[in-house]
Write a structure and sequence with these properties.
Elements (H helix, E strand, L loop, with lengths): L1 H7 L10 H13 L6 H28 L25
Helix pairs in contact: 1-2, 2-3
C-alpha cells in the first residue's frame, strides 16, 4: 500500500483516482494475484477508498459536534521580565 499511496500523492489526477487502480493492477499482476483480471485490483482500490472516506466522515462529524471546553474565567498570564545577572563579588 505504500507504493500505491506514494503514486496517489503525485499530482497526476484528481484525488488519485485512476492512478491507484493502475498501480494496484501492476502490483497484483507482479504478485500473481488474480493474473489477467484487473477487476479484483479495481475492486480493492474502490474498497480502500471507501474505507478512507467513511472514517474521514466519522472524524469530520465528531469534530463538528464535539463540545468545546473553554474556561469562562481565563486569566491572561503575562511573562515576568527576565532576571538580571548579578555581578560576582570577589
Amino acid at each position: 500500500m505504500a507504493i500505491t499511496q506514494t503514486a496517489v500523492s503525485l499530482p497526476i489526477s484528481v484525488a488519485g483516482h485512476g492512478v491507484s487502480e493502475v498501480v494496484l493492477i501492476g502490483i497484483f499482476s507482479a504478485m500473481g494475484v488474480a493474473s489477467g483480471r484487473p477487476e479484483s485490483a479495481i475492486a480493492f482500490s474502490v474498497l480502500w477508498f471507501s474505507a478512507q472516506l467513511v472514517w474521514s466522515l466519522v472524524g469530520g462529524v465528531w469534530f463538528a459536534i464535539r463540545p468545546r471546553h473553554r474556561p469562562q474565567n481565563r486569566q491572561r498570564i503575562t511573562p515576568s521580565p527576565p532576571a538580571r545577572a548579578q555581578p560576582r563579588q570577589p
